[in-house]
Amino acid sequence: MSENYSLIVKNGSCYVNGKLEKTDIALVGNKIKKIGKIEANITKVFDASNKIVLPGIIDTQVHFREPGSTDREDLESGSRAAILGGVTSVFEMPNTNPPTSNLVEFDKKLNLAKNRMHCNYAFYFGATPENVDQLAKLKGLKGCCGVKLFAGSSTGKLLVDKEADIEKVISQSAKIVSIHSEDEEILNLRKNFIKEGDVHSHPEWRNTECAMSSTRRVVKIAERYNKQIHVLHVTTKEEVDFLAMHKKNVTFEITPQHLTLYAPDCYDKIGTFAQMNPPIRKKEHHDRLWVAVKNSVVDILGSDHAPHSKEDKNKKYPASPSGMPGVQTILPIMLNHINNEKLNLEKLVKLMCENPCRIFGIKNKGYIKEDFDADLTIIDMNKEQTIKNEMMASKCGWTPFNNMIIKGFPIATIINGKVVMSDGEVVTEGYGEPLEF
Ligand code: DOR
Q1: pTM over 0.85
Q2: Cα–Cα distance measured from residue 198 to residue 400, given in angstroms and rounded to the nearest whole number
Q3: Which of 283, 350, 406, 432 could tie 117 with a disulfide, CB 3.0–4.6 Å?
Q4: 63 Cβ inside 6 Å of ligand 1
Q5: Residue ranges, the chain, pLDDT below 70
Q6: Which domains does the chain have, with CATH numbers?
Q7: Full DSSP string of 216-242
Q8: What is the pLDDT of residue 367?
C-alpha cells in the first residue's frame, strides 16, 4: 500500500483525538489515509520535526471584495494572504458590488473562485428584504455556508433593518443566518455623537446598546421560531452575558482585533486604521471577551478580514471606511496569545477548526482523522518575528498589527493534500475547492 501515499508528514507533534501526539500522517491525494508510524519508501516527505501539526485552520469571516472593489482585494489575493497565514478554508462575505444576493451572482462568485483561490472556500448568500423566497430554497446550494444578514448598515448596500423583515429571514431561511448585529434605528438616532475628525467617537456613535438591542431582538426571534442563528463579531460585555444564557438557538463569533486592541489606546495609536463595525471598545469589554474565551461561551474566532486602501483609511473620520484586514494575521496573533497563556491550543482548535465544522456542518474537515480531508496547518510555537505591513499579501498593504513582535507562526499550509505554503512562500498555486456541507 505504501507506494500509494502521495505525501507523508513526518515526526510532527500532531493534534489527534484532542491531544498532541508524536506521529506521522500519510496522505493519498486529498485525503488523510493513515495516522501512525509510517515507514514507506517515498520521496515526498514533509519533515515536521519540532513542529505542531493542526487540522486546517478555518476563517469564517472574510471580505475579499470581488466583484466590485478588486483594487482593494480579490479572491486570488485574499486567499493568497489566507494560506500565508496558515488558513486552509474561508467563508467569504456577500457585501460586494453587486452584492451576492441572488443565484446569478452566487454562481458568478463560484466561477471566479475556481482555479484562482489558493484555499478552500464557501460563500455567504446576502439577505435582503426582498429575497426571502430564495433564502428558503438554499438547502443543498453548492459552496454556500449560510445567509448573511446586516441588521445595521456597514460597508456596502446590504441591509435588513426592519424587525418584520429580520423575522422573515430568520424564520424562513433554509441555511443558518449569520448576523451583523447592530440596531439601525439607534445608529440613525445617534448620528449626532459622530465627531468629525475624531475616530474616538466611533464607539460612542455605535454604542453598546446599539449592539445589545439588535442582539436581544435576533435571539428572541430565533427562539420564537426555534431556528439556529450565529451572531458575528460580538463586542460588548452585555452581549456576552446575555448570549451565555441563550446558547440553545444561538452561537457566536468574536474577532482577534477585539481580543487584542482596545479603546482609547488603539485609536490613539493607529487612528482610523482601528475603525471597524462593530467598533473596538474599552478594555472592560475586551476583558469580558477573554472571559468568554476562557469559559468556552464563545464558539468561533473569525478575522472579519475587511481590507480598505490606505488612502481611504487616511480620510477624515467619518469619511474613513470601517474595517481592518486580518486573514493573514489571525493565526499568528492567536498563537502569540497562547504563548502569553491567554488560551491553550485545544481551545484554539475548537474555535477555528472543530466548532466551525459542527455549527455550519462542513463535511470531512476540522479534525486530523483517517479518511478526512488533508487540510493541515503546521506551526512553530517558538518562531518569533515582527509583523510588518510589507509582509501582507492583501492588496491593501497594511495591518493593524504592524510592528507587533509575535511568537508563534504557521510555517506550512497543506490544502487538499498539497503543500501550498512553506516557510512563508506560496509554493503551489490554485488548489482551493468549494467546501461541502
Ligand atoms: O468594519 C467592518 N467592515 N464591518 C463590517 O461589517 C463590514 C466590513 C467591510 O466589509 O468593510
Answers
A1: yes
A2: 18
A3: 432
A4: yes
A5: 1-3
A6: 2-53+369-382+404-426 (2.30.40.10), 57-360 (3.20.20.140)
A7: HHHHHHHHHHT--EEE-S---HHHHHH
A8: 98
